[in-house]
Amino acid sequence: MFANKVVIVTGSSGGIGAATVELFAKEGASVAIVGRNEEKLKEVAKRCEQHGASTLIIKADVSKEEEAKTIVQKTIDKFGKLDVLVNNAGILRFGNILQPNFLQNYDEVMNTNMRPVILITNLAIPHLIETKGNIVNMSSVLSASAKIPGTMSYSISKAAMDQFTRFVAVELAPSGVRVNSVNPGPVITDIAATAGLSPEELQSINPAAMTLFGRSSVVDEIREVVLYLASDKAKSVTGSCYVIDNGFLLK
């Protein structure tokens, strides 16, 4: 499905990103694997190469502008073109407006979850126009929900992501470039653990119980939707925010 295509997936050293980049590799794409943990990136690259894919490891912290700027250029230098950009890198931090240091929390989240997305997208656009490629942004159902306490900064960043997706879809449509987002509900990854929550704290939140089906998705369910949106099967789809939430928003 993606033979002779070149795909960048940011935040692909683990979780949804790693699963997604491996699926693209399995479907024939050459892949740029981007993240902060070089050892994990090497493990992901090895799995991609087992599918016969050509890989490029880019160790970069997207929250650092000088590092984020290199991602697209390194990909072009290696593969000569770009067909799909998956803006997946993101962090979750807990905090609320009552805390004196809340603005620090907000800045940290926005400087990882949104600012680099704008920068990397801007740099990728000329190459995507050349290939009539597309963009898939990783958002969240929390863009439209306030029911998990402490996730204000994260939720705001994802609401911004949804609106960014719509605006860029409108602006790139004349060039034939599609732009969509994927908005998962609860997913089994380590994002909550990396946010500083203990297993007990995570269990007390119990996001799976907030869904109609009483379950969290697994990463394979999310990556299949990313692949669909990036494929020619979705050639009529742009500006959409695809919800995969087990009924989270309806409960």
What does this protein look like?
The protein is globular, with a radius of gyration of 17 Å. The protein is of the alpha/beta class. β1, α1 and β2 form a beta-alpha-beta unit. The model has no long low-confidence stretch (mean pLDDT 96). A 7-stranded parallel sheet has the order 3-2-1-4-5-6-7, sandwiched between helices. It has helices at residues 15-26, 38-49, 65-68, 70-79, 102-113, 115-131, 152-172, 191-194, 199-205, 219-230, and strands at residues 6-9, 30-35, 55-59, 84-87, 134-138, 178-184, 241-244. α5 (102-113) runs parallel beside α7 (152-172). It has a single domain (6-250), classed as NAD(P)-binding Rossmann-like Domain (Rossmann fold), CATH 3.40.50.720. It has 10 helices and 7 strands.
Element pattern in H and E: EHEHEHHEHHEHEHHHE
Mean pLDDT: 96
CATH topology group: Rossmann fold
Largest sheet: 7 strands, parallel
Number of strands: 7
The figure for the number of domains is 1
The rough form would be described as globular
End-to-end distance, in Å? 36 Å
Biggest sheet: strands side by side, in what order?
A: 3-2-1-4-5-6-7
Oligomer: single chain
Q: What's the CATH first level?
A: Alpha Beta
Low-confidence segments, given as residue ranges, are none
Protein name: Ketoreductase domain-containing protein
Keywords: Oxidoreductase
Organism: Mythimna separata (Oriental armyworm)
GO molecular function, one term: oxidoreductase activity
